[in-house]
Amino acid sequence: MGALHRPGFVADRLDGQGVSNVASRGRSFTTVKTLNMQEINFDEALDRILAKDPRFSREAYLFLRESLDFTQKLIKEHRGQIRHVSGQELLDGIRRFGLQQFGPMTATVFEEWGVNNSRDFGEIVFNMLEIGLLAKTDQDSREDFQNGYDFTEAFRKPFWPQEKLKAETKPVASREATGGN
To answer: How far apart are CA 46 and CA 12, in angstroms?
Structure first.
């Protein structure tokens, strides 16, 4: 999800100072450091989004914004620069950041916010796009979030006891022969 001078996603600063539709050249899904006084701030933008689409809580939008920053930092560490963040990369960043922040409660927290699958994160991204909090490339679409990950696999299974994981990986015929599930 690229830069604005080159089409792409751009986010506002994490400190909530404001939103800009213009990013530095070569940045994507990046934090913007300038604020035009006529532009709305992040909280006002969220108020507009929530008035139009109340499916997801304010916390879900704040978390997505922090996940974007987390993802950009990961990309910068591995590639040496901030660049375009794809939907799949953002979903991976959301997964990693969620597990880091909430551990075994991640899926429960997301569900409390109204987020039940990776498609819901796509809806949040596109709500932010519509209000001008993010920008996208022509290649970016809601479909980028359709086949993300199963929440049980991504957020619950990493914390299952070893016995449950072993039972889960046993071949079906073996479980049926022993009468196990």
So the answer is: 12
